[in-house]
C-alpha cells in the first residue's frame, strides 16, 4: 500500500543516542536540554529567531493567537487544513473567509481588505504547500487597519522567498512538525515571533503562565503547550539528516514533474517548491475523482488536500463566497511523496494518473 | 540532589520493545495500535470505561469542558495546581472559587452551593492528592441546578472510594500522565466520560473534529489533542511494572509515616492514600519556610504543592474568601516521593524536617 505520506523513521542508533540522553538524566519533559538544542539548531537552519517549540501545530496557532490577544474575528483562507480555522473557533474567535488567488493559492489581499469588519483583529494567511503569500500587501493592510498578521506557515519548512525565511514574516508564524510533515517531531510545532516580549509571554504561557517551583504568585495565563524531550529526540535525529530527506523528496518530485507535467498542472512552481507536498490541479472534479479511484484500485492513496474548502462546510460555512477556493479545492490532488517512495513507484503512480486522465 | 519527584524511567529493553513497534510500522501518531492497547489496559486497570487518551492533562480538561459545552462560570477549588483554573480561563470560562473543607481538602459542598450564580454551568472539583471529594452531595447540587460535574482527577491514579474508581465519577473525570506523576506517558492525560455520546464527541474533537481522509464535509469542531504512539510506548512500558512502582512508593510513604507521624500531620489518611504525593501540614507558614530552607541547605527540594491558593493570585483573584484554602496552602508541604528514593534518604529527609520543627 502506498499512502500520500509516510513518517520518516530516523536511524535507530541515532535516535537511541538522543533518547538515552533523556532517559539517563530522567529529564523527559519541561523545557529540557534536547528541546533547547533543537530550538537552537532550528533557529539556525530556518534562519529565524524567537522560535518556541510546542506540543503540536494547533497549539502553535492557539498560543500565538493568545499571546497576540486576538479576539472577535480573524480573516483567513478557506483553502487550508481545518486546523487553521478550528484553532481560531475553539478559542472563541470567528474565522471569516476571504478568497485566494489562482496563482499563489494564498489569500488574495483585495479579498482580505473587503472582509475587514470592526470586529476584525487579525489576518491569518496560510503558506499552503510552502507557497509565499502576498506579504507586502498583507502587511500594508495589517498596518493600515491595526491588525495582527499571523502566518500559518505549517508547510514552509525550509521555504524562502526574496532571501527571507517564510517563518520570519508577520507578527508570528506557526509551523507543524507532525509525523507526516517534511520535518517532524512525531507530534510538535513551533512559533516564531517578531517581538521578543511577545515571545517571552508565549514562552511562559506554554508552561502554565510560568510554573516555577515554589512561586509566590501566579500573574499570567497559560496552558501546557510543551514539547517533550522524547519528541525533541526524534526531531534532533531527523534534523541530523534533513538534507538527505529533502534531496530524496526533490528527486521524487522531479520525477513526477518529468513524467506528468505535460499532462497536468503542478500547483507549486518548480523554483518555489520546498517539496513539502506534491499538489496537482486536475481539469475537473469528476476527473479528480476518477484519478483517485484508479489509484485506489492499485492501493495507492492520494489525498484531496485541501478539500472541501472550509467556507463550504457545515462547521465553518458562513455564507462567504470564495469561488476560486471552491474551484481549486474541487480539483486539487496531492500525490504520494515521502523519502521511502521508490522512483519505480513514482513511475507506476504517474502511469495510472495518466491513464485515468484520458 | 533530591527533588520532590523524579520521572520513573522504564526498563530500556521493555521500552525498546514498544518503540520498535511504532518505528517498524512507521505509525508514530494518530490513534495507532499502542494508544489503542494503552486505552484498553488502562480501562481494565482503573476499572473505568469510555476512556480517551490525550496529549496532556490540560488538554484533558479543555476537551472535557468543550465536549460538555461548559461556558460562563465554573465553580472550582483554589487549592489545586494552576491548570484547573487556567484551562477554564483560557477557553473563556470564568473560574469561581469555593472553599475546601479541612478534612478532605476538597470542595466544601455548602461553599459550592453558595457560589452558584445564573452564569454557572459546571462544578470542577479536584481530587487533590487522590483524595475523594464529597461526591454524593456534589452530584445532588449538580442535579438540582442542572450543572455539569467534571472532576479534575489528575492525582487519582488507582484511587478508589466505596469500591468505585474516582475516575468513574461525574459527567467526566480528567487525569494527567505527566512525567512527574505516579503513572506517566512523558506528557499525557486521559478523560473518562459517563455518557458514550459525549465520549464520541470528545474523541472526534481531539482529531480536528474527525479528520478522516478525503472527507466531504467538516461538521464538528476540534483541535489536535492526540497522544502520540511514542508517548503511549512509555505508558505501556510503565504500566507493565505499575504494581512495583506503587509498592515502592508505598514503602517510602510508610517510612515517612513511621518516622514523622508523631511530629506532624499527614494530609492524606493512610487508608485513602494512593501514594501520588506525600503532603504534610505544618503548624505555621513560618515553620513551613524553615523546613524548606533546612531541606534546601542539604539540596533537598520539597514543594509547596499547592501554594499560593489560586483565589489569592493576581491572575485569578476575584475577591473570593476561602479561608480554609488560604490557611492550608500556607502550611502544606509535599515531601520527596519517587520510586528511586532510597529509604536511607527518607530517613535523612525526616531527620532534617524534625530538626527544623524544633
Structural description of this entry:
The structure is a homodimer of 358-residue chains. Chain A is globular and about 70 Å long. In chain A, 54% of the residues are buried. The two termini of chain A are 24 Å apart. Chain A contains twelve helices and twelve strands. Chain A is of the alpha/beta class and 358 residues long. In chain A, α9 packs parallel to α12. The first copy, chain A, has a seven-stranded mixed β-sheet with strand order 1-9-8-5-4-2-3, sandwiched between helices. Chain A has two domains: 12-240, 3-Layer(aba) Sandwich (Aspartate Aminotransferase, domain 2), CATH 3.40.640; 242-357, Alpha-Beta Complex (Aspartate Aminotransferase, domain 1). In chain A, 40% of the residues lie in helices and 12% in strands. Chains A and B meet through α1, α3, α4 and α8 of A and α1, α3, α4 and α8 of B.
- Strand adjacency order, main sheet of chain A: 1-9-8-5-4-2-3
- Strand content of chain A is 5-15%
Q: State the end-to-end CA separation of chain A.
A: 24 Å
The helix-strand sequence of chain A is HHEHEHEHEHEEEEEHHHEEHHEH
Question: How many runs of DSSP E, i.e. beta strands of chain A?
Answer: 12
Summing up helix and strand content along with how strands pair, one would put the structural category of chain A as alpha/beta
- What count of domains describes the coordinates of chain A? 2
What is the H level of CATH, i.e. the homologous superfamily of the largest domain in chain A? Answer: Type I PLP-dependent aspartate aminotransferase-like (Major domain)
CATH architecture of the largest domain in chain A: 3-Layer(aba) Sandwich
Rounded to an integer, what's the Rg of chain A over CA atoms? 21 Å
Return the average pLDDT of chain A rounded to an integer: 96
Specify the biggest β-sheet of chain A. 7 strands, mixed
Measured as a percent range, the helix fraction of chain A is 25-40%
CATH class of the largest domain in chain A, anyone? Answer: Alpha Beta
Shape of chain A: globular
DSSP helical segment count of chain A: 12
Amino acid at each position: 500500500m502506498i499512502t500520500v505520506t509516510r513518517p520518516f523513521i530516523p536511524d535507530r542508533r541515532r535516535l537511541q543516542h538522543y533518547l538515552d540522553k533523556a532517559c539517563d538524566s530522567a529529564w523527559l519533559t519541561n523545557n529540557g536540554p534536547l528541546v533547547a538544542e533543537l530550538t537552537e539548531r532550528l533557529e539556525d537552519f530556518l534562519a529565524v529567531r524567537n522560535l518556541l517549540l510546542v506540543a503540536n501545530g494547533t497549539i502553535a496557532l492557539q498560543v500565538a493567537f493568545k499571546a497576540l490577544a486576538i479576539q472577535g474575528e480573524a480573516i483567513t483562507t478557506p483553502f487550508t487544513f481545518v486546523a487553521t480555522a478550528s484553532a481560531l473557533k475553539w478559542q472563541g474567535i470567528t474565522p471569516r473567509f476571504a478568497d485566494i488567488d489562482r496563482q499563489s493559492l494564498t489569500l488574495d489581499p483585495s479579498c482580505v481588505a473587503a472582509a475587514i469588519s470592526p470586529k476584525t483583529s487579525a489576518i491569518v494567511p496560510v503558506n499552503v504547500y510552502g507557497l509565499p503569500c502576498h506579504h507586502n500587501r498583507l502587511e500594508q493592510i495589517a498596518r493600515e487597519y491595526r491588525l495582527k498578521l499571523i502566518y500559518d506557515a505549517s508547510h514552509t519548512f525550509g521555504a524562502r522567498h526574496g532571501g527571507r525565511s517564510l517563518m520570519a514574516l508577520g507578527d508570528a508564524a506557526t509551523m507543524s512538525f507532525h509525523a507526516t510533515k517534511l520535518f517532524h517531531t512525531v507530534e510538535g510545532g513551533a512559533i516564531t515571533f517578531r517581538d521578543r516580549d511577545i515571545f517571552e509571554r508565549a514562552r511562559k504561557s506554554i508552561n502554565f503562565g510560568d510554573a516555577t517551583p515554589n512561586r509566590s504568585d501566579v500573574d499570567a495565563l497559560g496552558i501546557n503547550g510543551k514539547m517533550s524531550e522524547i519528541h525533541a529526540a526524534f526531531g534532533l535525529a531527523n534534523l541530523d539528516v534533513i538534507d538527505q530527506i529533502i534531496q530524496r523528496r526533490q528527486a521524487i518530485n522531479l520525477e513526477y514533474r518529468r513524467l506528468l507535467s505535460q499532462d497536468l498542472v503542478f500547483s507549486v512552481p518548480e523554483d518555489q517548491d520546498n517539496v513539502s507536498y506534491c499538489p496537482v490541479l486536475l481539469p475537473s472534479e469528476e476527473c479528480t475523482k476518477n484519478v483517485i479511484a484508479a489509484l485506489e484500485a492499485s492501493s495507492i492513496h492520494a489525498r484531496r488536500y485541501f478539500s472541501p474548502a472550509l467556507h463550504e462546510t457545515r462547521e465553518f460555512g458562513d455564507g462567504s463566497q470564495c469561488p476560486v477556493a471552491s474551484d481549486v479545492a474541487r480539483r486539487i490532488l496531492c500525490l504520494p511523496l515521502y523519502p521511502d517512495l521508490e522512483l519505480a513507484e513514482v513511475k507506476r503512480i504517474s502511469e495510472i494518473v495518466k491513464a485515468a486522465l484520458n
